[in-house]
Protein 1
Amino acid sequence: MTILIALIPMIGWGLMPVVARKNQSNTYETMLGTTFIVLFMTTLLFLWNGYSYSFSVFSLCMLSGVFWGFGQLFQFEALNYMAVSEAMPISNGSQLLFTTITSGLLLNEWLTVTQAIQSLLCLAIIVGGIYQINKGNMEKKTDSVIKATLMILVSSLSLTLYVSITNYFEISGSLVFFPQALGMTVTSAVIAFSQKKATIRAPYVVKNWLTGILWLMANISIFYSIQLIGLGLAYSISQLAVIVSVVGGIFILGEKKDGAEARNLKIGSMLMIIGIIALGLNK
């Protein structure tokens, strides 16, 4: 059962960017649609369970949601410059890099020097896979590729903080969801409505209800997984979402790959899978 729970984020987070692009909504419509449904569902959960919060716990959980808001902003923006099957390996890999280092150094999940070295070697394999997948783009070094890559790295750092902060302060999973969703929604709304040139179309906001459900499904399961098996291992397993994103980008969004690109994608994906599995086994 623990493994099944740990695998749910792979599906939810893997499909989320695919569905978001399929909806053809802009970044702000996607964020609003996602967070509105998440806030609605977590409010029901909050009312059902009748949780009470201290100011510090509520604030930290909200801050987690704020980090998510900025993380998703940059991730969705990056998808305007790079295909899902190219962007998400960078996103998943860099999140895994930041989260593994965070869990090892700050959460003391590296018990020995040997374990730390092995984890870093696994990360090197994952980074190699990311480079292989995006080899063509990296060699071109166009403005759009550089811009998208920088956005993804900022996004990954923010998303690492979103998933790490509550774990660092040992706040249990079920307490996190409502104030976190509130932080997500407020941040998304402030970002969206502060953009004077942005067009917010209500039908496209509504279309992203499934994006919200997918994210909520992944989020709830990842926080429970963290409690069961630790941040490092739970997040390692969740980042197998890269497989879902790559496959979804090609078969659902119709992202075309020529011979060299297809070969690089296969080799890079295999390297990432090997690295992620090895990293998980090293926990």
Protein 2
Amino acid sequence: MAKTSKQERAAREAVDGVAHAAKKARKTAKKLPKKIARPLGDAIDEAREAAAVSDKRMRSSPKKVAKRARAAAERLEKAVETAVRRAAEKARLRAEAEQAETAARDAEAEAAAKKTESKERRRRAAQAEKAAARAELASREADDELAAALGEPGADDPAAQEPRRGASAVEESAGAPALASMTVVQLRARARAAGLTGYSRLTKAQLVRRLS
């Protein structure tokens, strides 16, 4: 059996190395997107061809075999690095796009929520305003009913207003003691008949002062 020369052993190591690199590159290519992995095909084929060397050629041209195998392995390594880098960049861009899309959806949802909240506030304000108007109307109607029950003219009775103004001089002569003996409801009725405004929020003492 012929002895293996040093050059032949180096050639076999180079061939084994490129064969292993081709096998590893094929596994890597399967994990990458097809479009990115496609250029790896040529480099893998070249590496496999460099590894497919007959024993006869290995013995006859070990230097050429080793040189070709090392060159193919180097090109394959660079191709794999490029493909992996491109895949990582694509994944990063995809992640950023997804984050931007999520942020846009969140912002849109927040804007819609604020718009709904604003509408709700306006609706509640309108309801409160209507309730206040109804309460004021009810208060006036109650005052009118009380004035009618006491035999006094209401605010909406123009014919009764003139005599009431004439009677104010008599009431003024009676002074504050006569007013002080009246209830708040009666004082409010007097204030309404006298054409005063804002009387519904006044206390008894304030009503007496206004009517004095």
Protein 3
Amino acid sequence: MFRVFVVLLLLVHLVASKWIDATVCSPLQKDCFGIAHDEPENGPPRRILTIIDDYNNYVSVSDLEAPNGNVSLATMTSEERLALPLRKVNSLSSLFKPLIKCLDSQPTNVSLDMFTIGLGAGSVDFYLNNLLTRPNLTSVEIDPTMKEIATKYFGLVEDDLYRIIIGDGMDFLEKASNDGTRFNVMIIDACGNDTEADLVCPPASFLSKKFTKIAFTTLKNGGAISMNLRGRGKANKHIQKFIRQFEKQFGTRNCATESMGSTNIVLTCRASK
């Protein structure tokens, strides 16, 4: 029944928009994603990861290199649009402005050990992999479909300095803590699937005091963690409680917040040991 419903949705959206050039469905999330393209009047063409049954809900947006001869995307086939490479100068999401400040204070000739949870379309990882000095980057994503999307359509390539691990981020982090693995930077941009929860990002397992302690332990001295806290309804009280929990562990002076709205805050804390 789910497959029939998905096919009907795809047909509707494919008719409604010539810009959806590929679709990928996630059995884990029970959602289908569209790989779309648009051509803003001002700015480069873009590749967009969107949720098929909510076309205006953009999961990720990445700038593309302009086609040779500035050919309009409208004259290209789906295969040609999908073959356009991403611009390597894509900026890191404004969600992580405080983290950028932390990165700016690090030596530019030193490869940092970085860790991310929540791959999405891979825009954060793509940015980090194109820094002047590439980090040693490990990304953990629970949904293999997101890895497929990020590597097939959004420019991610695994190599000696970059790996994507399919698994539970909390489990991986706990194992890293016990093994003595330490990171300079951690980015948590994972969201849960509980449609009833006030706090959507991060999942419930990341809200515990246990996680806060593990995060502090797993960071190197001077290292930083940045987390996307997003919700709905009465989420703000949960967000503020979580921030106080981190401030208690890391120290109030070592934490900063960036407000993206009434129920969306990015928390960044530096570990001083």
Protein 4
Amino acid sequence: MQGLLLSILLFTKKINHTANVVLTIAMLALSIDVFHSAYIIFGYYKEMPGFIGITYAFPFLYGPIFYLYAKLISSSSNDFKLKYYLHFIPFFIVVIYGIAFVYLKSSEFKFALLRGEVETPLVLELMNYLKPFYGIIYVFLTIRVVRVYNNRIRNSYSNIERINLNWLKHLTIGLSVIWGVVVISYVVHAVADKNIEMDGFIYMSASVLIYSIGYLSLRQPQIFDQVINKSEERPEPERKTKTAEITSYQKSGLADTEAKSHLDNLLRMMDTDKPYLNCDLTLRNLAEKLSVSPHNLSEILNTRINQNFYDFINRYRVEEVKRRLAENESQKYSLIAIAFDSGFNSKSAFNTIFKKHTGTTPSQYRKQLT
């Protein structure tokens, strides 16, 4: 029921509608899968055999759906491209064979199928063994999309807590655990010729997955709504190699003297105007202040300072925190208050970034000053 309610909420979201529709399909499929499991476990199939096997092809949906959701939610384009349907070829193969072999058969045949008295067609048998590996492949593809996206947004945003997709990475890792259990059960069956009943664990895990997504959607609505300033252009998810980035910058036409001049202006502005105190500062905002294009500013940061925008701005914020902590009046304020006044907007991000730049936690650093 939770999954069905969440599906309705996702489907009615107007922002990133295509991505949310894709996720809605996953939620509905997971919900039906869980209900079908209860339908079999509690013996309801004896009275209503018509639903036996309707979810057999569903495992071939989850991997592509979560992968495509990650692609859509992390892309500047929210269009569902025609080539995306190719990811569902295995699903349609199983559905077609299922219709011919199971769904249109008599109740007696379906009961015999559950008891293992009917030989399964070779294609369905093969697909059955391939489905966990198919799912694991998409786990890695989804994690890669998330990793690339999280790396890309560091070139455009100084605070990424609201827009990173770490929650999706954790969710995908959860899927990998479920698929891993399925693979283990297959291996045990092949080696020891023993069947391990894992349906209860798998479907319980699927239920937890549904509730986790619901929890995240309520706690972090900006993840599902993608609350990003409309004036900002979301960075593309494709990841460039270092060589490709350098080649791209070489084609920008930015002369060395011009780059040096912009760099001097940038460093001067950082010291005098302190734009990093604005927690919502973006590459585009800073570029406008310097009267330079965002691409050229990114080039200057990456080639002249060897830092992305995120690390560059937060290094200044850390130094601002350190400067304020060194003042006598700092004892009047909490660490988080000082952090927020210095441009941070998240306690967890502040702690992580501060330790990255100083090698110690904020509280430990403060104790060292006393």
